[in-house]
Design a protein that fits this description.
Oligomer: single chain
Structural class: mainly alpha
Order of helices and strands: HHHHH
Number of helices: 5
Radius of gyration: 22 Å
Low-confidence stretches: none
């Protein structure tokens, strides 16, 4: 029996290339081999895409929370670090996600967000250590209590 051809034929002439994700996709494609089959537990490629998306997002969130708790644990202890990370407001989470997305979508976005973070870091360092620590402790304590 002959396999059915994919209804979506890639047009190599209009394919975007040169980005980091394109290079990564080519690497994964060469490692998995050129096949008409889409890897995954389902025979439906859309279902497989949803499954891998959920798995990657869950894994990324788990890793992010682990790293954040580890960074805060030394100063605030295990319970305090857990409360700070898990009691973050929806607005705080959304702003962080939007800034990260904007920074990863384009080079000007990365420069703008990275520059803003550098300016904030320099501003914090220009203040006295006591004032900067007090301000940060106050903000994180508020997050832990919510």
């Amino acid at each position: 029996m002959a396999r059915a051809k994919s209804p979506i034929k890639p047009d190599k002439s209009q394919e975007a290339s040169g980005g980091a994700t394109d290079a990564g996709a080519k690497l994964v494609s060469s490692a998995t081999g050129a096949s008409d089959n889409v890897l995954g537990p389902s025979t439906n490629p859309a279902t497989n895409l949803i499954i891998q998306d959920i798995a990657l997002r869950a894994g990324g969130r788990l890793m992010r929370h682990t790293l954040e708790k580890g960074m805060l644990r030394g100063r605030y202890g295990g319970t305090g670090a857990k409360a700070i990370v898990e009691n973050r407001s929806l607005v705080h989470t959304m702003v962080g996600s939007m800034l990260a997305r904007y920074a990863t979508r384009s080079l000007p976005g990365a420069v703008l967000i990275g520059g803003g973070l550098a300016v904030k870091t320099l501003y914090d360092r220009s203040r006295s250590k006591r004032d900067a620590k007090r301000s940060g402790d106050k903000s994180l304590k508020k997050m832990a209590e919510d």
